[in-house]
Specification:
Radius of gyration: 21 Å
Strand content: under 5%
Number of domains: 2
Strand order of the largest sheet: 1-2
Order of helices and strands: HHHHHHEEHHHHHHH
Helix content: 55-70%
Structural class: mainly alpha
Number of helices: 13
Number of strands: 2
Oligomer: single chain
Largest sheet: 2 strands, antiparallel
Length: about 300
């Protein structure tokens, strides 16, 4: 078990850590569960499980598992209130969005519970890798058309300058798919372990291929930005290890040079989206820049 600064805290109950990991899995497997249930004609609100899990965590720990500092709690209330103003004042937004908002708040508190109760970094990293690699496997099966009745691809229709655009979707919206790959990618930021590093790198490579096939510019930008943060993270915390600062850029650079023709071949559709339309892409660049400006200098 790695020590990343938690040794001064009392260890949480084993049950709380197990429940936190279970809740974390439910959050990140929600779109995959919905994806497979829909394939068999079953429509179940998977996110409703989050409310039950938060309630169980609250009872089991008597509220200790969900403790949060005053400042972020105030900000959370302000965010919730601002969303509620929109729900009640905008006629095109239905009251059903209150359930979506409730699920988002539950997911937030499950994240708090994970931060308060999970101390075994190796175990948590393995869970993150398992989740992201499972999504990579499902997406690859769908894109390669293995068992299409089970691993189906949806096609979203859109228009650009009067021309119809068709883009594939798998477990969720193209622009949201990256968020299910991020846990495994972020494992690269942890102290160097050869097996863990290689699995996380595999997740990066598969994610890059999948996102190019989904033609999501936002997804690619988030992926590249996350890799940059993982590379520079050891400069802020020596405990993360600095081997990757050299190993990762060199390895990825060599792979890019060796397989550049192949990469350019399968990313043609995405490249056309980067070069063919700027009116939405410019906004994405501003959003990504704002995000990383505030991550590096909050």
């Amino acid at each position: 078990m790695e020590d990343l600064g938690y040794s001064d805290r009392p260890p949480p109950p084993k049950t709380a850590e197990t429940l936190a990991l279970l809740a974390f899995n439910v959050i990140l497997f929600d779109s995959m569960m919905t994806y497979f249930l829909n394939a068999f004609g079953i429509h179940v609100p998977v996110n409703a499980l989050l409310i039950v899990l938060v309630f169980i965590l609250f009872l089991e720990s008597r509220g200790r598992a969900l403790q949060i500092a005053i400042a972020p709690l105030v900000l959370l209330h302000l965010c919730v209130l601002s969303f509620m103003v929109g729900i009640f004042t905008l006629p095109q937004v239905g009251y059903a969005r209150l359930l979506t908002l409730g699920a988002a708040v539950c997911a937030f508190f499950i994240g708090v519970c994970c931060a308060n109760n999970i101390r075994n970094v190796d175990r948590f990293a393995n869970v993150c890798l398992f989740i992201s690699l499972a999504y990579c496997l499902v997406c690859m099966m769908a894109l390669l058309q293995f068992f299409p009745s089970v691993f189906s691809v949806k096609y979203a229709l859109g228009f650009r300058d009067g021309v119809q655009i068709i883009r594939p979707e798998i477990t969720t919206d193209q622009n949201f798919q990256i968020f299910y790959f991020l846990p495994g990618i972020l494992v690269i930021a942890l102290p160097f372990r050869i097996k863990r590093f290689l699995l996380s790198l595999l997740c990066v490579l598969l994610s890059f291929y999948i996102l190019t096939q989904l033609k999501t510019r936002s997804g690619i930008l988030v992926l590249l930005g996350t890799l940059m943060l993982c590379i520079v993270a050891p400069f802020g915390s020596k405990q993360l290890g600095r081997k990757k600062v050299i190993i990762l850029p060199v390895f990825l650079g060599l792979l890019t040079l060796i397989f550049l023709p192949l990469i350019m071949g399968f990313s043609t559709g995405l490249w056309e989206r980067f070069t063919g339309s700027y009116h939405t892409f410019h906004g994405r660049l501003i959003s990504i820049k704002y995000l990383f400006d505030h991550l590096l200098s909050p």
